[in-house]
Design brief:
heterodimer; A: mainly alpha; MetI-like fold; 2 domains; 13 helices; about 80% helix; globular; B: mainly alpha
Chain lengths: ~280, ~260
C-alpha cells in the first residue's frame, strides 16, 4: 500500500515537473542572475547599492513611482466600488451590459488604450483641438507629459483589475443584512456604512493590493504618456540599460523594485487573503 | 421590485459615468482612423479609408500581424498543455509541495515586466535565443503559464474527489483516470486558459522590446515604434480593427455561453 502510494506520487510529479522545470530554469534562474549582476558589475561589491541610496534622481524616481501608484490605486478603488455596487445592488436590468463594458477594456491591449489617450490628450490632440475650435482656450492645455496624464490613463488601464475582485466579493453578499438594518430603523447611509461596507472590505483590499502591485512596476503607459518627465522606476531602469548600458545601476534598481513589490505583498498578507487574491483568482 | 432610493440612484448614475469613462477613450480611435490627413486628427472635411488600405496592403504591418498570430497560437498550445498537466498534478498531489509549486508558477504575474525582461535578455543572449521566434515563444509561454494553471485549477475546484477515487478503485491507472475523468472536468478551464495565453502573448510588448532586434517584428512592437517615431493614423486603423475583433469575440463567447443549457 505504501509502495503504491509512493509510485502514484511519482506519477503526479511527472505531470507537475515539465512546467515547474521550465519556470525554474528560464524564469526564476534569470532573475537570480539579475540579482548577481547587481553585485558584480561594473566591479564586485555593494557599490551599486551605495550609489543608489546617494542618488537624488533615483530617490525622486522612487517617490514618483509610489505616489503615482498610490493615487492610481485610490481612484481605481473609489470608481471601481461605485461600478460594482451599482451592478449588484441597483440595476438588475442592465447587469449584462455593465459587466460587458467592464470586460471590454480588460481584454483590449494596454498599448492600444494608451494610444487612445495620446490621441485624446496630446498638444494637438482631440481634446485640445475641440476646445480650441469652440474658442474656449487659446493655447493647448498641458494634459500629457505630466503626472495628470499618466495617472488619468493608468486609472483607465487598471480600473478593470479593481472592479473584478470587488465584484467577486459583492456577489456573495446577501441583501438580507442591509434589509434587517433598515427594518430596525437605520438610515440608508448608516446601513451602508456600518453593515454593507464592512462586508465588502475583503474585496476592496484584494483590489487595492492587485492594482498597487501592478502600478508599481508599470512601464508602458507612464513611458508613453509621461514623455520622459514622469520617470517611474521601470522607465528609469530601461533608460539606464538601453541608453547608458549601465547594467550595474539597472539591475540594482530592479532588485530594489522587486524587493519593494515583495514587501508590499507580504505586508498586505496581514490584511488580505493572499491565496484568494493571487492563487485562486476567478 | 423595490423602489430605488436616492442613494442607489446616485450610485447608479455614478456607475454609468465611470463606464462612459472606460468606454469613450477607446471609441475615439474610430473617427481618427477615418481622417483623410496624414497626421492624427479628427476628420474635418470628408472621410477616407486610406489608413485601412495602408494597414491591409503594407507588407510590414501584415507580416507583423501574422508573426504575432503565429507566436500567440504556439504559446496558447504549449502553455495550455504544460499548464493543464501542472494543475492536474498539483490537484492530485494536494500537499504542501504542490502548494509551493503553485506559488512558484504564478511568480510572473507579480514581477514587474521590465525586471523580467532584463532577466530574459541576459539569459537569452547566453542561449543564443535573441531575436528568434523560439526565444519569443519561450518567454511568452512562461508569462502565460500562471493564467493557464489558475484557470484549470478553478475548473477542477468543482470536481468531486470521490469520482477520481471511484475510477481508481475500479482499476483505472493514474493516466487513464487523468484522461477519462479529470481532463473532461478541466476542459472549461483549459479553454479559458488557452484564450488568456493567446491574449497575453498577442499583447506583450516589454519583453519583445528587450529580446528582439530586427528579425522578429510583432504587432505591438510595430505600434510601439509607430507611436514613438511618427504618430501615423495607420495605428488608429489598427487599433480600430483590434477593438472590433475583440468586441466580436466577446459577443460570440457570450452567445455560446447563453446557448448552452
Amino acid at each position: 500500500m505504501i509502495a503504491r502510494s509512493l509510485t502514484d506520487k511519482g506519477r503526479y510529479w511527472i505531470l507537475i515537473l515539465p512546467a515547474l522545470a521550465i519556470m525554474l530554469t528560464f524564469y526564476i534562474w534569470p532573475l537570480v542572475e539579475i540579482f548577481g549582476i547587481s553585485f558584480s558589475e561594473p566591479k564586485p561589491g555593494f557599490e551599486n547599492y551605495v550609489s543608489m541610496f546617494d542618488s537624488r534622481p533615483i530617490r525622486t524616481s522612487f517617490v514618483i513611482t509610489f505616489r503615482v501608484a498610490a493615487i492610481t490605486t485610490i481612484w481605481c478603488l473609489v470608481l471601481g466600488y461605485i461600478v460594482s455596487y451599482a451592478i449588484y445592488n441597483t440595476a438588475p436590468r442592465y447587469v449584462g451590459l455593465m459587466i460587458a463594458l467592464v470586460l471590454l477594456p480588460f481584454w483590449l491591449s494596454v498599448l492600444i488604450r494608451s494610444f487612445a489617450w495620446i490621441v485624446l490628450l496630446g498638444r494637438s490632440g482631440v481634446v485640445n483641438d475641440s476646445l480650441g475650435a469652440v474658442g474656449l482656450i487659446n493655447e493647448p492645455l498641458p494634459l500629457m507629459h505630466n503626472e495628470f496624464g499618466v495617472i488619468l490613463s493608468m486609472v483607465h488601464v487598471m480600473l478593470p483589475f479593481a472592479i473584478l475582485p470587488i465584484m467577486a466579493n459583492m456577489k456573495g453578499i446577501s441583501r438580507a443584512y442591509v434589509d434587517a438594518a433598515r427594518g430596525l430603523g437605520a438610515s440608508e447611509l448608516r446601513a451602508f456604512v456600518s453593515v454593507y461596507f464592512p462586508q465588502t472590505l475583503p474585496g476592496v483590499l484584494s483590489a487595492a493590493l492587485l492594482v498597487f502591485v501592478l502600478a508599481l512596476g508599470f512601464y508602458i503607459t507612464p513611458a508613453l504618456l509621461g514623455g520622459g518627465r514622469v520617470l517611474m522606476i521601470s522607465e528609469y531602469i530601461t533608460y539606464q540599460i538601453q541608453e547608458l548600458l549601465n547594467w550595474g545601476v539597472g539591475t540594482s534598481l530592479s532588485v530594489a523594485l522587486l524587493l519593494a513589490t515583495a514587501a508590499v505583498i507580504l505586508a498586505a498578507g496581514r490584511f488580505v487573503n493572499l491565496r484568494r487574491t493571487l492563487l485562486e483568482r476567478r | 421590485m423595490r423602489r430605488k432610493t436616492t442613494f442607489q440612484l446616485l450610485m447608479q448614475t455614478g456607475a454609468w459615468m465611470v463606464l462612459a469613462f472606460l468606454l469613450l477613450p477607446m471609441l475615439v480611435v474610430l473617427p481618427v482612423s477615418l481622417t483623410p490627413n496624414e497626421y492624427i486628427s479628427l476628420p474635418s472635411d470628408g472621410f477616407s479609408l486610406k489608413h485601412y488600405e495602408n494597414y491591409f496592403t503594407d507588407p510590414e504591418w501584415l507580416s507583423a500581424t501574422w508573426t504575432s498570430i503565429v507566436i500567440a497560437l504556439s504559446v496558447a498550445v504549449i502553455a495550455t498543455i504544460l499548464g493543464t498537466a501542472f494543475a492536474i498534478g498539483c490537484w492530485l498531489l494536494s500537499d504542501v509541495w504542490a502548494m509551493v509549486a503553485r506559488w512558484v508558477l504564478i511568480v510572473p504575474i507579480l514581477v514587474p515586466p521590465v525586471v523580467q525582461a532584463l532577466g530574459f535578455y541576459r539569459f537569452w543572449v547566453k542561449l543564443g535565443l535573441i531575436d528568434s521566434m523560439t526565444g519569443v515563444i519561450l518567454a511568452h509561454t512562461l508569462l502565460a503559464l500562471p493564467y493557464v494553471s489558475i484557470a484549470v485549477f478553478a475548473a477542477l475546484a468543482n470536481l468531486d474527489r470521490r469520482i477520481v477515487q471511484a475510477a481508481r478503485s475500479l482499476g483505472a491507472s493514474v493516466w487513464r483516470t487523468v484522461i477519462a475523468v479529470i481532463v473532461p472536468a478541466a476542459r472549461p478551464g483549459m479553454i479559458a486558459g488557452a484564450v488568456f495565453a493567446f491574449i497575453v502573448s498577442f499583447d506583450e510588448i516589454v519583453g519583445v522590446l528587450f529580446i528582439t532586434v530586427r528579425n522578429v517584428q510583432t504587432l505591438p512592437k510595430m505600434i510601439w515604434q509607430g507611436i514613438n517615431e511618427s504618430i501615423d493614423p495607420t495605428i488608429a486603423a489598427v487599433a480600430t480593427v483590434l477593438t472590433v475583433v475583440t468586441i466580436l469575440i466577446m459577443v460570440a463567447v457570450t452567445w455560446r455561453w447563453k446557448a448552452r443549457p
